[in-house]
Amino acid sequence: MDHENVIGLLDVFTPSTTLEDFQDVYLVNHLMGSDLNNIIRTQRLSDEHVQFLIYQILRGLKYIHSAGIIHRDLKPSNIAVNEDCELKILDFGLARHAEVEMTGYVATRWYRAPEIMLNWMHYNQTVDIWSVGCIMAELITSRTLFPGNDHINQLNRIMALCGTPDEELLSKISSKEARNYIRSLPVMRKKNFSEVFQGANSVAIDLLERMLELDADRRPTATEALAHPYLASLADPTDEPTAEPCDQSFEERDLPVQEWKQMVHKEVIMFEPKIRQISAGISGVAQDMQRMLRCSD
């Protein structure tokens, strides 16, 4: 992947000189300095900060999703930030192709979309949009939005804000046990987001509410979220690149360890280092805002 808001691989090398003694691989990434978790814990962010950071996250997600990939573990500590408020999405250890069968227990609980807990095998790229909504709320308030201490408590916290699912949404939940549990609860009405997030930009609240939609089918895609009025001063569809579909078919091959070792060694030897300006692809308007903002822990 090659995108300003996604962690890139600048170089790969090994101290080994032959295939026989090949054991260690060193990966070189951009030095970013901090992450969103540290930033949130150490400073109060302005609306301009929130706008610029969310724009970059969604810009990176548009690229990732266009490759057919779901990140599945977006959270503040997986978003690296430098002192100029440039960010990069990190840690693709739980990422999967959108077309493969999924597992239920992915993503850090506090940022986990409700459909992951309710449907297990049936979800799509909008699980990442839910996580962005949780992150955005945290940027606004400096507090974790849904700090559930277990699976059930997490769901209850979500429903306390977003309301209990209606019958239309319940019909989409594949787990009979989950449906029965939700029906056993007292009906909770969705709270007024403007009252919950008092003092926040009303346009920001509208985007937040859309991303924290219980029904994944109604949640915006990354591309749709980028077109929201809250991000209008930064958005530039001509500078929000997409990727070619990611071919992961090689992972399905059943090969002996030695052959995998040969393949990895070949990739390391053939890798061409990439040196480029970090912010080269960010639009002029975004660069102007970047010069006005600082993010440091």
Automatic annotation (TrEMBL):
A GO molecular-function descriptor: ATP binding
Cofactor(s) demanded: Mg(2+)
PROSITE patterns: PROTEIN_KINASE_DOM (PS50011)
Keyword Nucleotidyltransferase: no
All residue ranges annotated as the Protein kinase domain in the record: 1-231
GO BP: cellular response to stress
Enzyme Commission code(s) on record: 2.7.11.24
UniProt keywords, alphabetically: ATP-binding, Kinase, Nucleotide-binding, Serine/threonine-protein kinase, Transferase
Signal peptide from the UniProt entry: none
Location of region: Disordered: 229-248
Family the UniProt entry places it in: Belongs to the protein kinase superfamily. CMGC Ser/Thr protein kinase family. MAP kinase subfamily.
Protein's name according to its UniProt entry: mitogen-activated protein kinase
Species of origin: Ornithodoros erraticus (European soft tick)
